[in-house]
Every structure is written in C-alpha cells, then in structure tokens.
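Subject: design request, 214 residues
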C-alpha cells in the first residue's frame, strides 16, 4: 500500500508570517495538532501544539496573563515551526511512512510531489490502514491461527479454505518463534466450524475467532 492511497489531501496549512494565535485557531477549528507551513505550495516547516507550548512563556514567569498573551500574539509561525520539514513522497510505501514517524517520534508527515504539498499522512492514517489490512471491522470471520513455520504451510492453509469455498479477504503472518508463526485470516463467511476442524486436523491451532455481523 502506498502513501497516496491513505493520505489526507488538501490539508489545512499556515504561512510563516501568520501569528501563533492564527495557527492555534486553525488547529482548534479543524481538530488537528499539526500544520504544514507553506510558502505558496512549498513546505518550509511544520508547526505543532507542542512547538507552540515550548515557545510560550512558562507558568513560572513573572509576566502577567495579559503580557504573556500579548507576547504570544506577536510571535510568528516562522519563529516557532520545526524546520527543515521531514517530508515523504506519495509513491512511498506506507511502511516507510510508519518507520519515519516512529523513528522520528513525530505524528505527521507532509506529502510532497516535486516541491508541491499535496497531502499529509498521520499516525491515525497508519493505524486506520493497519485495522483495514487485518480486516478487523469487515463482515465475516477473522481467525488467528498458530501454524508450523515450514515450507508449504501457507499453501496447506489456503487449500483448506478453498476446499470449503471460503474466500480469504485478508491475510497476515507474524513469526512468533523458530518453530511457529501466527497467521491472521479474514474469511468472507461466518460459518467456519468445518474449516476450523480441518485446520486443527492439519496440525494448526485456532488461537482466536472473531465474527463480525455488520
């Protein structure tokens, strides 16, 4: 899956010469915590609520509330934003975006094509993709199976589901240890008793079963 398939297009933005209250207003009205900072369509930085909090007068300051508010009102986005921005291409793999977000301890990446901002990808987008890939909300049955980690093991599993005319809608494999793997299979049917019996007979263990009716 690619970034362009999960990104939010036409993101909300601010410019470097806008005030911090302007940026906070956009974040509050739009329900976001981060904004790309642009000059034209070129991304020059990213500003977050954390950036603003770090630049705000400390609660221990001797400034009055009125003085602190005045200082913040005069502060420009360009003085507070994180720069240079970490960006990603729309053709990058979603896993690449996840690694950049995780390793960089950031929550949003501007998506750029050439020098132009075309979207953003966030931690929430990655989590939604993970849920979709595993079919957690899809109609049917989701089986979590422990199987021997050996050549032909996956073919055996798919052969059993095919013999029962069950279509695999989602499939994920996690290598648990040297001998076994955990396989998550999303099937398009709620009636999996016979499938489960055949899987067990083939040496596979059903660890969990989830049925979605909607």
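Subject: RE: design request

Done. Sequence follows.
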């Amino acid at each position: 899956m690619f970034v362009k398939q999960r990104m939010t297009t036409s993101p909300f933005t601010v410019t470097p010469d806008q005030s911090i209250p302007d940026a906070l207003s956009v974040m509050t009205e739009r329900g976001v915590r981060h904004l790309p900072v642009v000059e034209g369509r070129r991304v020059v930085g990213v500003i977050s609520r954390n950036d603003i909090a770090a630049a705000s007068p400390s609660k221990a300051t001797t400034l009055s509330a009125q003085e602190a508010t005045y200082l913040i009102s005069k502060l420009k986005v360009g003085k507070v934003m994180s720069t240079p921005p970490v960006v990603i291409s729309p053709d990058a793999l979603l896993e690449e975006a996840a690694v950049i977000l995780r390793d960089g301890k950031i929550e949003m990446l501007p998506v750029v094509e050439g020098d132009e901002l075309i979207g953003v990808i966030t931690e929430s987008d990655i989590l939604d993709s993970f849920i979709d890939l595993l079919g957690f909300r899809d109609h049917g049955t989701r089986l979590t199976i422990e199987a021997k980690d050996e050549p032909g093991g996956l073919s055996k599993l798919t052969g059993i589901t095919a013999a029962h005319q069950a279509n695999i809608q989602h499939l994920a494999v996690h290598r648990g240890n040297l001998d076994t793997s955990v396989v998550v299979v999303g099937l398009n049917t709620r009636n999996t008793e016979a499938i489960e019996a055949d899987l067990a007979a083939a040496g596979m263990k059903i660890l969990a079963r989830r049925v979605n009716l909607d």
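Residues 136-212 form a domain with the Alpha-Beta Plaits fold (CATH 3.30.70.260).
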